[in-house]
């Protein structure tokens, strides 16, 4: 079987909450001024109560609202694909499977949470959302979700990507969103996710009709993404593989990795691997500490691996991996030893993406290329030992609007600092 497909009726109806089964629970977010744990009232200016409740929920399962399921059904369940042609090209005995999250309207896993977040805001009569975006995948996901719920949306896009990727901007505008380059007050600055978060939070905090929406990092975002791993579990069983040996995702803030990996946290013997850029090596070289989620220091302090909230990563093409920190849940899993992390220079990731593209036909997003690098290395290690390892990874997005990055790679313009 090459594509393992579930019917619409098999779409999961509840998200999996990892908090009750974490080896070490993540430490609570702290108020930036008092350094006391934040309460719901501290978060209420930015988020609806429905999402604040999910942020701290310890229920094992959280029901997915019917209105959210109705929209997710536009592209879910996504297929699980056995990458047989890549296996053959590598000559590996490993079995490689990937969840194809590139099939969503915006082309990545991001709409899984964007739709849920727009729903909970609409349910509490919020009229407008602000957000940041790196490469434009998250911004386009939220723009799509806001168009479904008739919400206004303003996206602060990291300037380096705004200049490099005009098609993402057009996509967001077509779905009715306003897009501006960030940082808004420093026209010569290439920008960073941390700065764009500051712009978006400042906007939301200044208006009563507006909330802020984050595409990664927070517990509720990771919760919404677990639909990926829940489907994958069903599909692997249909393919005759009881469980994977290793689950791999690229890691920016940690949402697509968590989506595929968190449902496997309780399963003994399943390795979980985060793949990140060596130019923004949060998990492999960052310090585990409380730090701000944004550059200006407006957000609560999160317990995470961080390179410091004022770290500005080099403008690599994987804009979605240019974040100074990581989700507290992912950080805690790495710290406890339940999850591993690896880092790659971008040239190695494009090499992997091109190998994947020539074997399987699909051109991955530069972010996804980091996961594929790790997958290929795992498959080659399995070849060395003759091990029939089952490798599952998240194909978090397509790269069809990132072709300028491929052009740079193919013509020797890609710089690995
Ligand atoms: C395709 C794709 N993969 C991965 C990421 C990284 O984000 P996260 O770590 O939250 O999945 C992004 C972020 O923009 C993305 O667009």
Number of helices: 17
CATH architecture verdict of the domain at 68-108 and 220-410? 3-Layer(aba) Sandwich
CATH class of the domain at 68-108 and 220-410: Alpha Beta
Structure summary, number of beta strands: 15
Largest sheet: 7 strands, mixed
- Tell me the structural class: alpha/beta
Question: Strand order, biggest sheet?
Answer: 1-4-5-15-10-11-14
Shape: globular
Fill in the CATH topology of the domain at 68-108 and 220-410.
Rossmann fold
| Helix proportion range | 25-40%
Rounded mean pLDDT is 96
The stretches of 5 or more residues where confidence is low (pLDDT under 50) are none
Beta content comes to: 15-25%
What is the rounded Rg?
20 Å
Distance between the termini: 42 Å
Question: What ligands does this structure carry?
Answer: pyridoxal-5'-phosphate
General description of the model:
The structure is a single chain. With 417 residues, the protein is α/β, with parallel strands linked by helices. The protein has a domain at 68-108 and 220-410: 3-Layer(aba) Sandwich (Rossmann fold), CATH 3.40.50. Helices cover 39% and strands 18% of the residues. The chain is built from 17 helices and 15 strands. The chain has helices at residues 40-43, 49-56, 66-72, 84-90, 111-123, 137-149, 159-164, 166-174, 193-205, 219-225, 227-239, 255-261, 282-285, 328-335, 346-360, 366-385, 403-410, and strands at residues 3-4, 14-16, 61-63, 80-82, 95-100, 128-133, 152-158, 178-182, 210-212, 246-250, 271-277, 287-292, 301-306, 339-344, 390-395. The chain is globular. It starts with a strand and ends in a 7-residue tail after the last helix. The model has no long low-confidence stretch (mean pLDDT 96). Pyridoxal-5'-phosphate binds next to helix 6, helix 12 and helix 16.
């Amino acid at each position: 079987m090459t594509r393992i497909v579930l019917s619409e009726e098999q779409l999961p109806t509840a998200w999996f909450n990892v908090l009750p089964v974490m080896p070490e629970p993540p430490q609570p977010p702290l108020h930036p001024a008092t350094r006391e744990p934040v309460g719901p009232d501290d978060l209420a200016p930015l988020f609806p109560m429905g999402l604040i409740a999910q942020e701290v929920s310890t229920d094992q399962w959280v029901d997915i609202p019917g209105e959210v399921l109705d929209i997710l059904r536009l592209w879910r369940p996504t297929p699980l694909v056995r990458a047989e042609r890549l296996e053959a090209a590598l000559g590996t005995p490993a079995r490689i499977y990937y969840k194809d999250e590139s099939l969503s309207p915006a082309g990545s896993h991001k709409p899984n949470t964007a739709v849920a977040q727009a729903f909970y805001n609409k349910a509490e009569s919020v009229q407008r959302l602000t957000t940041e975006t790196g490469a434009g995948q998250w911004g386009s996901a939220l723009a799509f979700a806001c168009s479904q719920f008739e919400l206004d949306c303003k996206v602060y896009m990291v300037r380096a990507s705004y200049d490099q990727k005009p098609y993402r901007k057009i996509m967001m505008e077509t779905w009715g969103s306003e897009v501006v380059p960030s940082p808004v007050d420093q026209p010569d600055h290439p920008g960073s996710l941390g700065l764009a978060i500051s712009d978006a939070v400042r906007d939301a905090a200044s208006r009563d009709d507006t909330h802020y929406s984050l595409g990664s990092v927070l517990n509720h975002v990771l919760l919404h993404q677990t639909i990926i791993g829940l489907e994958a579990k069903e599909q692997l069983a249909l393919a005759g593989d009881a469980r994977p040996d290793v689950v791999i995702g690229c890691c920016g803030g940690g949402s697509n990795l968590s989506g595929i990996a968190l449902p496997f946290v309780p399963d003994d013997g399943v390795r979980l691997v985060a793949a990140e850029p060596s130019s923004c090596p949060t998990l492999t070289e960052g310090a585990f500490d409380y730090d701000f989620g944004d550059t200006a220091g407006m957000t609560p302090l999160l317990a995470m691996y961080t390179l410091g909230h004022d770290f500005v990563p080099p403008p690599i093409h994987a804009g979605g991996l240019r974040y100074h920190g990581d989700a507290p849940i992912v950080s805690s899993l790495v710290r406890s030893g339940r999850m591993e992390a690896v880092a790659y220079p971008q040239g190695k990731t494009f090499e992997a993406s091109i190998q994947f593209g020539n074997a399987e036909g699909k051109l991955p997003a530069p972010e996804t290329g980091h996961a594929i690098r790790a997958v290929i290395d795992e498959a080659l290690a399995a070849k060395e030992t003759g091990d029939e390892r089952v490798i599952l990874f998240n194909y978090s997005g397509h790269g069809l609007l990132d072709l300028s990055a491929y052009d740079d790679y193919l013509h020797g313009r890609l710089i690995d600092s």
